[in-house]
Design brief:
486 residues, Endonuclease, Chain A, 15-stranded mixed β-sheet, 15 strands, globular
Length: 486
């Protein structure tokens, strides 16, 4: 009788073939049965079948969405806002503040998002790091009870060190501070700012930290959210990371542009609920009580105010929230849609919605960067842009340095701003956080900002695309084929 060692030595190629075949079949069946996007399903099945064993291993790490099954239970949205003021905050109709067509969009938002649309909010647009970081520093230095900060990137540079020291000082004077940084984003600078914060006594965590055997299976999922909540009553959110490159005095002529927003009112409660959920998922510590959530009605009920809500999205129960909101906004647009996105790779359904809006007579302006920090994404964008131009959308390549802003406005009365890009990663893989705002004043400010960019931009036409060399256009198309995985 052959020993086990003899069998393995003689038949190992056949055994390996059987194991590889079984693993590939199991992974391919799982992808076909669980993926909702046919392109993703086809892509993963191809990877698994044409890369025996290695493809199945890669799918195990990057292709299975375990977050939707193992997520921490989210608190019921707005559940802790004092009940005696809830009825004063609910927005029943938005026609008077934004326009009749937005009533249907408000209903859509109620159904695809857990958070209610509430008024009594204020919102202030902050232009780049020159306005954002001083406002954040001032808020941190004035904190009395708590500070919650979440960012995709928190660099260990001049700006990061100043903000980190302010957080450390706040902790030292008795303020409770929590900082959550994405595990991938934390590696953008060396040494990571995490070490400085922890040494200074600030409890800091890394979201989806890829520790082998624990978080490796989440390596393809990232938290792209950016928020800062002070004392549970006022906050900041938008598209900006914490980096010196956003400050003109430091980066000078190479400064990166962006937009961020300072908010107050009940929307801050929603921001804090998002942070508390992500923090508990990462650390198992539950944040609750008056330290983190104000129970004073004076912090919520203001005269008038802006109807607003948070829209979280990600590969959990909120999957598709932003995608659905953008499709809805395009379907109700009557006059003008303006979009500014640094990484503009809409999927088939969004391309169709943009094209349909343009064909209905809606003016659709799309602004992309002239200078992009991600070369592959820029190539994929250029390969796809003709699909929109041919249907009547106007696409503009901005001049100047890179602009990281993510802005979406409709008919001068509705805005969608925050961390989400219009690309597959942002819409399906990243944890994102945006604001839906029904306010003509903010929308006009954003429209003016986008129009100012268009005034100095180059309009992309089919003729200008065809003037590019065949080799360049072929390269772009090849990169575009991989766009769902960029």
């Amino acid at each position: 009788m052959h020993s086990v060692q003899q069998v393995l030595a003689e038949y190992w190629p056949f055994i390996l073939f059987l194991i590889s075949g079984a693993a590939s079949a199991a992974a391919a069946i799982h992808a076909a049965m669980t993926k909702q996007d046919v392109r993703a399903a086809i892509g993963w099945v191809a990877v698994v079948l044409f890369s025996p064993l290695l493809g199945a291993a890669f799918y195990l790490v990057a292709g299975i969405n375990r977050v939707r099954k193992q997520r921490v239970s989210r608190q019921r949205a707005d559940s802790s806002i004092p009940q005696e003021v809830i009825h004063q905050l609910l927005v029943e109709d938005v026609a008077s503040v934004s326009g009749v067509q937005f009533s249907a969009l408000k209903i859509l938002g109620d159904r695809v998002n857990a958070f209610k649309l509430l008024h009594s909010n204020t919102i202030r647009l902050l232009d780049g790091g020159d306005e954002t970081y001083p406002a954040m520093l001032e808020a941190i230095k004035g904190a009395q009870r708590s500070i919650a900060l979440q960012s995709y990137i928190f660099d260990h540079d001049e700006v990061g060190i100043e903000l980190a020291q302010a957080l450390i000082d706040a902790q030292a004077r008795g303020v409770t501070v929590r900082v959550l940084i994405d595990a991938i984003g934390a590696k953008y600078s060396r040494p990571p700012i995490v070490h400085m914060l922890e040494k200074g006594g600030v409890r800091t965590a890394r979201f989806m930290r890829p520790v082998i055997g624990v978080r490796l299976v989440y390596a393809n999922l990232r938290s792209h959210r950016k928020l800062l909540v002070i004392d549970g009553t006022h906050g900041f959110t938008g598209g900006m990371n914490i980096r010196a490159g956003f400050v003109t005095a430091i980066a000078k002529e190479n400064v990166t542009h962006d937009t961020h927003f300072q908010v107050s009112g009940p929307v801050v409660y929603q921001l804090m609920l998002n942070f508390a959920h992500d923090w508990q998922f990462t650390t198992q510590e539950k944040l609750s009580g008056p330290v983190w959530f104000s129970t004073s009605s004076a912090d919520f009920v203001l005269e008038g105010g802006v109807p607003m809500r948070c829209v979280p999205s990600g590969p959990d129960s909120t999957l598709g929230s932003t995608h659905d909101m953008l499709l809805g906004a395009l379907s109700i647009a009557q006059r003008h849609v303006r979009i500014q996105s640094p990484y503009f790779l809409p999927d088939v359904s969004l391309v169709a919605a943009l094209a349909t809006a343009a064909r209905r007579g809606v003016r659709v302006d799309i602004v992309i960067p002239g200078a992009n920090n991600l070369k592959l994404v820029n190539a994929a964008m250029m390969a796809q842009i003709d699909q929109l131009i041919l249907t009547g959308c106007q696409v503009w390549r901005a001049s100047g340095t890179f602009d990281h802003s993510k802005l979406f406005t409709v008919d001068g009365g509705w805005s969608y701003v925050g961390s989400s890009n219009l690309d597959p990663r942002s819409l399906r893989l990243n944890f994102e956080l945006d604001l839906e705002v029904y306010d003509r004043n903010l929308t006009q400010q954003l429209d003016a900002r986008i129009d100012a960019t268009i005034a100095t931009a180059e309009r992309i036409t089919i003729r200008s695309l065809m003037r590019r060399s065949f080799a360049l256009r072929l390269r772009d198309k090849i990169v575009w084929l991989a766009s769902p995985y960029l």
